[in-house]
Write a structure and sequence with these properties.
This is CRISPR system Cascade subunit CasE. The protein is of the alpha+beta class. 27% of the residues lie in helices and 29% in strands. The two termini are 25 Å apart.
């Protein structure tokens, strides 16, 4: 399996500058754990923008993971090198082969932007597949309402740290790594891009920014998991785990 890691930067020229607000809109500051209501549309715009480097045919399935680094920069892990021009929207990509020589016991620092979900069992029928829920939202819903804003924010981050750790430990059991250290840098909720209206009625998904250290248990499993991505919402810039030697 051959993979490629690319750094993409939106081009700085008058033509791209004229449409910059459309392809790379600026988000509003997060408030109370809810990102800018347009954040989902921003993620969708970025996904479509990156497709300009990979969508060579209309039948092509997405075979890349990506994350925004801000200021018009993106990191992409793909099964094919990106196109060199991208319709002139990007500067020439900085691409290299991604083939880390991993050994059992290696310690790796990582960063990961994740939409972490689990399947909630149906209490009325254990054999029936339950609903898929965001691990943090599911915990937050159990918090008492009516708290002061700061207290609820602290409780939300504490819930994110606990749920994020349990989720990533579960991922590691399937993906050939052992979680040794974890920091949850941020957790927020993003409305789906096609939805408008009251917050209470909007379909949303949670986004966690995670960092820490893992130990390699099974190198082949880990490489396969890195290529596939961890968690869901991969079209929205989640799932790409970046690693380096600790």
């Amino acid at each position: 399996m051959t993979l490629y890691l690319s750094r993409l930067t939106i081009a700085r020229n008058p033509t791209v500058a004229a449409i910059r607000a459309l392809i790379d809109p600026l988000p509003a500051p997060a408030r109370g754990g809810l990102r800018d209501p347009a954040q989902g549309r921003i993620m969708d715009a970025h996904h479509r923008l990156i497709w300009s480097l990979f969508g060579d045919t209309s039948e092509r399935a997405r075979d890349f993971l990506w994350r925004s680094e801000g200021k018009g920069q993106f990191l992409v892990l793909s099964h094919r090198p990106p196109s060199a021009d991208g319709a002139g929207l990007f500067s020439p990509p900085q691409t290299k082969a991604f083939a880390p020589d991993l050994r059992e016991g290696d310690r790796l620092a990582f960063v990961l932007r994740a939409n972490a979900t689990r399947t909630r069992k149906d209490p009325t029928d254990p054999q029936k597949r339950g609903a898929r829920v965001d691990v943090v939202m599911d915990t937050i819903h159990a918090l008492p309402s009516g708290r002061a804003c700061n207290a609820r924010r602290d409780a939300r981050m504490s819930a994110a740290e606990d749920a994020g750790r349990r989720w990533l430990e579960h991922q590691g059991a399937k993906a050939g790594f052992i979680l040794e250290h974890l920091i949850v840098d941020d957790y927020s909720v993003v409305p789906l891009p096609a939805q408008v209206g009251p917050r209470r009625e909007q379909p949303q998904f949670g986004v966690m920014d995670l960092a820490g250290q893992i130990r390699v248990g099974d190198p082949a499993l880990l490489l396969a998991a890195l290529a596939q991505g961890l968690g869901r919402a991969k079209a929205f810039g989640c799932g790409l785990m970046l690693i380096r030697r600790a």
